[in-house]
Amino acid sequence: MNQKQFIEQYEKDKPMYKTWAKHVLEEINSQLKKHLVSEKAYSDFVKIPPSYRVKNTDSLVTKAFVRHASYYSNPYQEITDKAAIRFVVLLTSQLTEVSEIVENTNTWRFEKSKEFDDWKDNDPRMFDYQSVHYVVYCNEELDIEGCIVRKGTPCEVQIRTLMQHAYAELAHDTIYKSHIKAEPEVIRSFAKSMALMETTDELLCEAKNILESASSYIESWKAAVQLEAKNRLADVALVDNDLNSEYLLDCFSSILEKTDIESFQSFLADETYSYIPDKIKQHSLHFVEFRQDVILLIYFLARRFRKSFHRLWPSDKKPLESVYSDLGLSAPWQTT
Fold first, then answer.
1. How many domains does the chain have?
2. When you count CB atoms within 10 A of the terminal residue's CB, does the N or C end of the chain come out lower?
3. Does 247 reside within a domain?
4. Tens digit of pLDDT for each residue in 121-135?
């Protein structure tokens, strides 16, 4: 295939590559959001909005016939980054979670990017670069929004951390992709920055693990509370803010340790208290406290610890008074 034929074929195939890249991104993104449950968890995990691109024709032709002409025997078939997507996460410990989605999706088959691995192996200036590069190939011919994607169409998937991304954006065009020899001082500076980046990432991963271990029971309660609110309070305009939930759960932590999630779920399943969602809906028109996903837990704790729960209540007790009244309980703070 000469250059003219190469360009003609690529211009013809560009819409297909764009459609396939967009589809791969949306599929990974959708599965990741399901895994992370909430928008807050997703935004904490994905630090730059994921993006896709189709390689510029001039850039592709130059790669195939100039920069890497000796690397390829059949460049049109062998160049696998004509379409590419990128995910940027916070820490290296999170790379695995995105990788597992890539490796367990039935729409495509995957392999590690041979070109990227060869580049790392052959270029001594690649200072243990840790980002993950896959190539995913369409398993069968697909019709996506009227565009036919051929079986075997490739798309490169790059997964890197925020620090790796910052390093790569500065370093790649400077010392990796350039054929102009960088000064030794520049190489040493990049080497030191990579070492510092890896050490910082290790320390941050360790700190994150310690924090998650210390707060694991609160996270379990949060997950249970959010699930029950989703199932039982569909008619209530709940405030979507994890910070509020975490704040209130932290306020109640001393008594959460004295009960369990199963008891909370049994309370909600008891027909005696089946009226509570309707009461919450009524009160939500007047008090924002009744629009928090922890409100079902507040009813449970008020019933379970009716004499002491009010001491942990962090704000105005007027909404709490409504909770006690709904449960048929007198407000203990009014008599103590």
1. 2
2. C
3. yes
4. 555 444 445 578 899
